[in-house]
Amino acid sequence: MPKQNGLIVITGASRGIGLALVTRYLEAGFPVLAIARDVASVQPRDNLTTLDADLAGRAGITRVAERVAVLGLPVAVLINNAGVQNTIDFIGPDIGNPEYPDRIRDEIALNLTAPILLAVSLLPFMLRPGSTIVNVTSLVSRQPKPSAPVYSASKAGLASFTQALRVQLRSEGIHLVEAVPPLVDTDMTAGRGSGKISPEAMAEAIFMSVKNRKKTAAPGLSRRVLIINRVLPELVRKILARN
Predict the structure, then answer these.
(1) Residue 81 placed within a domain
(2) Are 135 and 178 in contact (CB under 8 A)?
(3) 25, 30, 125, 151: which is the annotated catalytic residue?
């Protein structure tokens, strides 16, 4: 397949949904910049550039922008996929652990601050019109998961940011997609729930939503939960609280 115009920038690209997205876009003929804290597990392929970067710190954001500048290609799609979910009990015995404040700060930094700063840093490189920013949120952005309060809050913030940025960038011809996965069979969901979809299925949903200029990528159960949440939010809250 011939090389497509425009660079695809994917964070959290070393496994799960991120790695599946790398494969999907390479198969479609796009040049891809794959970013992760450790990209050693990403197999070298034609059209692929990898970058080790810790996006929880400003230095990592700067590294991404510098690499994009060196590659010299306009950014067609930025996919903010990297994220972390910590179980935090604010009345549990571990809350006094001196590492907790750093864990909370880093969780917010990776899940919320990094996507915002990457948008700021890469907007100058984006195609106008025609580029897309994809922010991967979660069903708990709508109704929180009590065992993961910081994750829930950060994803709710990212969902709100996505909606606001969509309005701001409309005049520039830059499209925003919110990806809301159901349970996906990744390391993050190991030992939790059933009926999971594959990372490849979620990657395909994102790919098609970008291609067709959809606002949301929410396959399977996610789509149903989002619909139910509009009319029966208390029911969704109870279901997510049990999980």
Answers:
(1) yes
(2) yes
(3) 151
Averaged over successive runs of 10 residues, the pLDDT of the chain (243 residues) comes to 76 97 98 96 95 97 98 98 94 84 96 98 97 97 95 98 98 98 78 77 98 97 94 91 75
Question: 100: domain CATH number?
Answer: 3.40.50.720
Indicate the burial class of 67 (C-beta count within 10 angstroms; 0-12, 13-18, 19 or more).
middle
Alpha carbon distance 158, 155 (integer Å): 5
Which of 221, 81, 234, 219 is CA-nearest to residue 143?
A: 234
Residue 122 and residue 218 in contact, taking contact as beta carbons nearer than 8 Å: no
Specify which residues 10 forms β-bridges with: 34, 79
The neighbouring-strand residues paired with 134 are 79, 177
Q: How far apart are CA 207 and CA 167, in angstroms?
A: 22
- Decide if 2 is inside a domain: no
Count the domains in the chain.
1
Query: Which pLDDT score is estimated for 190?
Result: 58
151 given a catalytic annotation:
yes
